[in-house]
Amino acid sequence: MLNKIVLTGAAGKLGGVLRKPLAEMCRELVTTDIADSVADLSPNETYAQADLSSLDQVMRVMDGADMVVHFGAIGDEAPWDDILQSNIVGAYTVWEAAYRHKVRRVVYASSIHAVGMHPKTDFIDTTARHRPDTYYGLAKCFAEDLASLYWDKRGVESVCMRIYSCEEKPNNARALGTWLSHGDLIRMVTAAIETPTTGFTVVWGVSDNDRVPVDNSRASFLGYRPQDNAETHAPRILAQAAPMDPQNPEDMCHGGPFAVVPLGESGVAMIKARSVGS
User: What are the chain's domains?
Assistant: First the structure.
């Protein structure tokens, strides 16, 4: 059991999924976000409000940590200045504080949007070149390269998890390939923490879907073995799904809707507006 784990982004949707499982893996869990507080703390969990753009604040919460699970950031496309402070400067402060405090490993919530403009007809592995679809995706590229740099030059290990569509259940045709269940998210983070050595590693954050569009074999040493499969939801989803357009990047690129969202504009808002109008 680890002595101390730090979780950033604890007030977010996926951070909330991870809090209890992480608390069971360590003697002390420190969770942090920009929110004033989070509810239902575990007995060994302490919440510390912090702004990731401030190195001083991140240094305070990182003191004594064995590992950092970094989920704190804007989780959507946003204007450049917002992405710069939260997702890019915030990544630097996490890795720099980890280095200064001799933290062993950063487990990072990267995203498919770092490579979102690759065609879905390309069955890509973890060596595929960066091809971001948004400023949000570009920030994920930066953080992955930062992780590589801090491993090569400073010996800080990292596991960069390129998360696809993490929901309780898949809700559209794209998700039949891209779905990551909450259970498999926990299994992936657990594997990233418990693997004896990782160096700098990239792993696709997807479940064991029949239609999975990426190859995770190069990260098999992590021991991440997803157990859920979106195919069980296929009859319901395909009965309601409209035909896909082979000329539309949204249907044909790994990044899905983010392949067409204008730079700096919310992809989540665009998706919600379509749902309301349908």
Answer: 2-277 (3.40.50.720)
